[in-house]
């Protein structure tokens, strides 16, 4: 087997291996369909490379057309999957115009005005445009993390590779008049090697992104309460500590609100645990909406919830608690009999000085206890200062 054939088989082998790896990964993460699209695109590109070197019984011209259709389809799938992975809207129209224009030009210079050099330019310029379009879509998210930045750079390099490398090689060693000696030319060699390198780098970056997704999901499961969708106690305390540190450094106020569903045990006994679960989920949804992106809400006990509110003093935190209390007590809960009223009690404390989380929670809990003791469905405040060291007064008896 000659060296040219070894080089020709390099890309399909790499592409098949990467495609299989992405498809296997997708079988374990079915909720991420972009992985299946990536696997499919790499497998299709492998077929395209094989058909560049081996001719089907339909003839050379039609074989080259099928090969470039595979390349075009694979490029569109790969580009769309990368953009979709980062939550961007896939530019189907842009990708379709660039891919369709490149393929239409290829067909023109294959069947109407046969010219190998222009076929090379048409396909490469189409793929280069798609690569730069992907880079443009990744530009707003390129600073979100290392994988976004690397893929943005790789998309730019891929676009430059299709444009600049192709032009340089064609100008230096072209034009190409036929396929005789084409697969031993500097163009084909540089195309195969650059494609192999960029394919590996892009795939490794996407594998890293998929691994980070799994780690992020595992972390979310560790810190999230599955019933309410809020932070669990561990997750809430870590987030609250972080927000307290940030607010202390910037000298910003911060408040803590504790909430407890009233008569929850009785509700469970009368209507069943399924109804109790719906009550918890409904209250959590309202609490999450009220807290917004600025605050951190968590379910820290069976029917007990907590919210840390940065940039919020005691008066503003009281308004927050009253708003949630009023909203919740005024509405019904799906699945409960009509007219069934569910309420909650609230304790509010504003941080004083460099007060730590536990003393702050203790004060808010004391205020919550007063709300429960004084009739429930109410908000009580803690006006107390943080706990201080008790120093006994000197005795004057002697």
UniProtKB/TrEMBL annotation:
Top enzyme class: transferase
CDD domains, sorted: GGDEF
Pfam families for the chain: GGDEF
UniProtKB keywords: Membrane, Transmembrane, Transmembrane helix
Keyword tRNA-binding among UniProt keywords: no
Gene3D superfamilies hit by this protein: 3.30.70.270
Catalysis performed (reactions): 2 GTP = 3',3'-c-di-GMP + 2 diphosphate
Protein name, entry field: diguanylate cyclase
Annotated organism of origin: Mesorhizobium erdmanii
């Amino acid at each position: 087997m000659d060296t040219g054939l070894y080089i020709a088989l390099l890309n399909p082998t790499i592409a098949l291996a990467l495609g299989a790896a992405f498809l296997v990964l997708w079988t374990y993460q079915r909720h991420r369909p972009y992985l299946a699209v990536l696997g499919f695109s790499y497998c299709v590109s492998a077929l395209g490379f094989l058909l560049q070197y081996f001719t089907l019984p339909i003839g050379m011209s039609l074989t080259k057309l099928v090969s470039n259709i595979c390349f075009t389809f694979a490029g569109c799938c790969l580009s769309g999957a990368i953009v979709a992975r980062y939550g961007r809207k896939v530019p189907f129209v842009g990708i379709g115009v660039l891919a369709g224009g490149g393929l239409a030009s290829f067909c023109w210079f294959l069947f109407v005005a046969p010219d190998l050099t222009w076929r090379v330019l048409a396909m490469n310029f189409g793929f280069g445009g798609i690569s730069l379009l992907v880079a443009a879509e990744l530009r707003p998210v390129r600073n979100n993390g290392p994988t976004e930045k690397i893929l943005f750079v790789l998309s730019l390099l891929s676009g430059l590779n299709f444009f600049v490398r192709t032009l340089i090689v064609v100008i230096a060693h072209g034009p190409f008049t036929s396929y005789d000696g084409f697969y031993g030319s500097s163009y084909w060699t540089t195309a195969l090697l650059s494609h192999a390198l960029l394919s590996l780098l892009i795939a490794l970056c996407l594998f890293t992104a998929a691994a980070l997704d799994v780690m992020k999901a595992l972390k979310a499961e560790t810190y999230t309460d599955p019933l309410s969708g809020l932070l669990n106690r561990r997750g809430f305390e870590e987030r609250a500590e972080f927000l307290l540190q940030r607010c202390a450094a910037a000298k910003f106020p911060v408040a803590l609100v504790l909430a407890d569903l009233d008569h929850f045990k009785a509700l469970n006994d009368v209507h069943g645990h399924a109804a109790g679960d719906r009550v918890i989920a409904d209250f959590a949804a309202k609490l999450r909406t009220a807290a917004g992106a600025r605050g951190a809400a968590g379910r820290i006990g069976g029917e007990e919830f907590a919210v840390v509110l940065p940039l919020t003093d005691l008066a503003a935190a009281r308004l927050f608690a009253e708003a949630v209390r009023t909203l919740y007590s005024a509405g019904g809960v799906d699945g409960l009999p009509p007219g069934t009223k569910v309420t909650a009690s609230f304790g509010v404390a504003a941080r004083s000085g460099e007060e730590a989380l536990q003393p702050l929670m203790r004060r808010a809990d004391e205020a919550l206890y007063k709300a429960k003791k004084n009739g429930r469905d109410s908000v009580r405040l803690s006006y107390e200062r943080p706990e201080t060291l008790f120093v006994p007064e000197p005795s004057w008896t002697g």
